[in-house]
Specification:
The protein is of the alpha+beta class. It contains 16 helices and eleven strands. Helix 9 packs across helix 15.
């Protein structure tokens, strides 16, 4: 972390506080994580975490939405909430002289949100509009049906927005119950980075969070449905100018021994203009408008996939090309030059993602939430360097035997016999 010391403290109520002093610029960034991400949502209440994030900053018992906005904007600060599959996040950034005031406001929002009924209804309408808009976007449709086929009834199956049925059913009381159940000090991680000493930062955390008591009830134990790929051929005819072709596989979670191997496989296959997919399928064969790979970091089983936007007439050829490149990874180990290029690219991007105070605060808190520990920042590059071509080949062989195929495009292009594809 730029060789700066990370100070980790656990308060009496269980809040984990991470502080890095960085006096270079007069900015302090903070991330307040709660382990109440999309994964805790009941299936019938899909979209609960997103709606809570949209309304959290819209009112408390003491302040209206306008008063909150004015308090933030009057000092040029930034304050926002967001939902993630694995956590709920409140982010803030301000100059150091205003940090105490904005941090206190963030604590008020996190601990005492009012979830005003009129704001809930407004954000519900906006969310439903966004869900309808996604249905008109070929990539979003393809990705949505890929996730659902991979994860079945696991919470990762759904878009972060939820679905129409779930969002329509959500109530003000659902939001209050969600907050009362999951927003508690022993589920909270706070990371602070910037022009502030660890002593001052910790004192400010204690001032606004120190009296937050752990509820008598334990954290709920969830029995998540296990991801189980099904209906491996997913097709949605849509009158579009191009076809979206996706292949997806269930892939290892972040704490798996195969995680780093898959990060390198994804980087090699689909990251940038020098990636294999770009060179082989776009540059050499002219098949792709866009082509890439993805492998998000997840606490639960992730997904590894490739996708391409292509001319409808090339849909079947594009599918064969994507499948062939994944199979090639399983059949042929990377050369030493290919492996080193992937390592350099991945580690370079990793380093670039830790430049600002906000980025460092994000990474620190995220590692804590994932249970990886502070040492992971140093361990990750070492683990990437230790991955061999044989490790990548073996990992791909373990996880990438039978893909889920997701196609979106003109009916004549995507409705072909899967047995011949």
């Amino acid at each position: 972390m730029n060789e700066r010391t990370v100070h980790r403290t656990v308060l009496n109520n269980g809040i984990v506080v991470l502080v890095v002093e960085n006096p270079t610029a007069d900015i302090v960034a903070a991330r307040i994580f709660n382990r109440a991400g999309q994964w805790v949502e009941p299936w019938a209440k899909a979209g609960l975490t997103h709606l809570a994030s949209a309304v959290l900053t819209k009112g408390t018992a003491q302040r209206s939405s306008r008063e909150i906005a004015e308090a933030v904007e009057s000092v040029g600060a930034a304050l926002s909430a967001e939902a993630n599959p694995d956590y709920f996040l409140l982010s803030l950034k301000t100059v150091s002289s205003d940090f105490a005031a904005i941090f206190s406001l963030a604590a008020e929002l996190l601990r005492y949100p009012a979830f005003p009924v009129e704001e809930v209804e407004l954000e519900r309408k906006l969310t439903l509009q966004a869900i309808r808009s996604q249905r008109e976007q070929p990539f979003a449709v393809a990705f949505d049906q890929l996730r659902q086929a991979l994860y079945a009834k696991h919470p990762y199956a759904l878009s972060g927005l939820g679905n129409t049925e779930g969002v329509q059913a959500l109530t003000h009381e659902d939001l209050k119950q969600y907050h009362a159940t999951w927003f508690r000090p022993d589920q909270t991680v706070i990371s602070i980075v910037g022009r502030i000493t660890p002593e001052v930062a910790l004192a400010q955390v204690e001032a606004v969070f120190g009296d937050w008591q752990v509820p008598a009830e334990p954290v709920p134990t969830l029995q998540l449905s296990q991801p189980k790929p099904q209906n491996r051929w997913q097709v949605t005819p849509q009158d579009t100018q191009q076809s979206i072709v996706m292949l997806g596989y269930l892939a290892p979670p972040v704490r798996s021994p195969d995680f780093c191997a898959f990060k390198l496989a994804s980087t090699y296959l689909g990251n940038g203009l020098s990636s294999r997919l770009f060179v082989e399928l776009r540059e050499k064969r002219g098949l792709a408008y866009e082509v890439s790979a993805f492998y998000p970091t997840r606490l639960e089983p992730s997904q590894f996939g490739t996708y391409m936007g292509t001319a409808p007439s090339n849909t079947e050829i594009a599918l064969d090309g994507l499948r062939s490149e994944v199979e090639r990874l399983a059949e042929q180990p990377l050369s030493p030059e290919e492996l080193q290029a992937a390592r350099s690219k991945l580690l370079g991007q990793y380093a670039l993602g830790k430049q600002t105070n906000a980025q460092i605060a994000q990474v620190l808190g995220w590692y804590e939430v994932l249970g990886l520990g502070l040492s992971y920042d140093e361990l990750f590059p070492q683990m990437i360097e230790a991955v061999t071509a044989a490790d990548i080949q073996a990992a791909v062989q373990r996880y990438c035997q039978s893909p889920v195929v997701s196609l979106v495009g003109p009916a004549a292009a995507v409705e072909f016999n899967q047995a011949t594809a």
